[in-house]
Task: inverse folding
């Protein structure tokens, strides 16, 4: 921690808080293999799970928490995290916009936040600390990038405090589990300002077609839930055959309440908290649903 946050420059109370947070983090059951390093970021992450340990592995997309905004539904977030901790085979894929991070330079009003960005970072890390060992990947969003003009990448700070693999842009995650050799996940926060379901779906679809080859594509950003099943033609080497391999593109919504916030004021489509969930079986079968 000394490289990013020089301890000698911290006040005793801040140092105590960071030490307490660091000591609360649980170790991963299996260590990831990290690749495509860009500074402190890792664009490629590989995990290997023992198929004898779990009958299934569940992946839950957690995105657009925007912790710190007065409309963030913290009790709903904690229910999701409690559900994840209830079973040892449930893991998290973080999709960005984890804090709101309003400043005088960003859209909206700073007094819509409960505290400044630095306070939001620490408070959210306290909330996520119990599930830190279940987080398989994390991509930053436009709210993490709000710090670039004044401080730096806020997502990098969150990832550093929680000691989790992070990419400010996109992240490729391979999961080796039974016959999944590997199951390929592609994370990105998303972009644009689409309002209709069709336009939102096209953002997901364009993401999938620009980077073919993964099984699961996950985005957030537009605070809506969309699930697109597709089939990708894949060559079977040595057999002179083409097989169709299923893939899904999914957009999860957010943890912001609709009424009383900018979504209501701007006339955006209301959406409840709905996150994409994928279940892997050691046989190589899998399914994607919502929760």
Result:
């Amino acid at each position: 921690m000394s490289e990013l946050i020089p301890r000698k420059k911290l006040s005793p109370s801040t140092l105590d808080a960071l030490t307490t947070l660091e000591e609360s983090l649980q170790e991963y059951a299996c260590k990831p293999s990290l690749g495509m390093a860009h500074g402190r970021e890792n664009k490629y992450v590989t995990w290997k799970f023992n198929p004898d340990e779990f009958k299934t592995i569940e992946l839950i997309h957690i995105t657009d928490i925007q912790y710190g905004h007065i409309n963030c539904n913290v009790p709903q977030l904690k229910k999701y995290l409690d559900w994840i901790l209830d079973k040892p085979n449930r893991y998290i894929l973080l999709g960005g916009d984890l804090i709101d991070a309003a400043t005088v330079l960003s859209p909206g009003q700073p007094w819509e936040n409960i505290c400044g960005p630095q306070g939001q970072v620490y408070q959210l890390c306290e909330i996520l600390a119990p599930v830190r060992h279940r987080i398989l990947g994390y991509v930053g969003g436009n709210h993490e990038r709000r710090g670039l003009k004044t401080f730096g990448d806020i997502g990098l700070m969150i990832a550093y405090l929680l000691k989790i693999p992070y990419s400010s842009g996109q992240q490729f995650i391979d999961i080796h589990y039974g016959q999944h050799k590997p199951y390929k996940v592609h994370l990105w926060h998303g972009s644009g300002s689409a309002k209709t379901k069709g336009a939102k779906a096209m953002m997901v679809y364009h993401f999938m077609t620009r980077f073919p080859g993964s099984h699961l594509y996950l985005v957030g950003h537009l605070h809506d839930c969309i699930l697109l099943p597709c089939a990708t033609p894949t060559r079977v080497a040595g057999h002179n055959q083409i097989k169709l391999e299923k893939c899904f593109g999914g957009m999860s919504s957010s943890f912001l309440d609709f009424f009383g916030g900018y979504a209501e004021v701007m006339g955006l489509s209301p959406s409840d908290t709905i996150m994409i969930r994928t279940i892997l079986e050691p046989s190589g079968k899998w399914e994607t649903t919502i929760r």
Summary: The first helix runs from residue 12 to 24.
